[in-house]
Request: fold
Amino acid sequence: MDLTELYQDLILDHGQKPRNFGKLKLYNHDAKGHNPLCGDNIHLYLNLDKKGIVTDLSFEGSGCAISVASSSIMTEIVKNKSEKKAQELLDAFFKMIKDNNDLKKIDLTENEKIKFQSLSGVNKFPMRVKCATLCWHTLKAAFDNQKQPINSEVID
Reply:
């Protein structure tokens, strides 16, 4: 199996069986996002402890396979990371999608890097970039306690 097939399999798996799906019982940050072009909707819940660690993270919503897979992968990678580390991952994700940057300088386990990079091919399909980035923009909004829902049509 080549890397492209592995990435496709990861996206399909996370799209069909999303991890961390459902509303958290205990959360102290949340945000909503919507991609009107594709119909993706997400409500992200996170629990940030006093030390700034994301102790739990989940999402509800519906959308295309890319949107759901990206949300699922994001929750797995960001959970148990500090807010500072999560912000670094946000920046790295947007650079990877927009500029095709690699992840050599990102401190992730090999398994996390594979999951993260599985979404890198989306940049070849401009109509799908907003599907993949919606949850990441929504995560940023949750950290910022932004109550206005994210609309993918008005974000870069």
Q: What stands out?
A: The chain has one domain: 3-151. The mean pLDDT is 91.
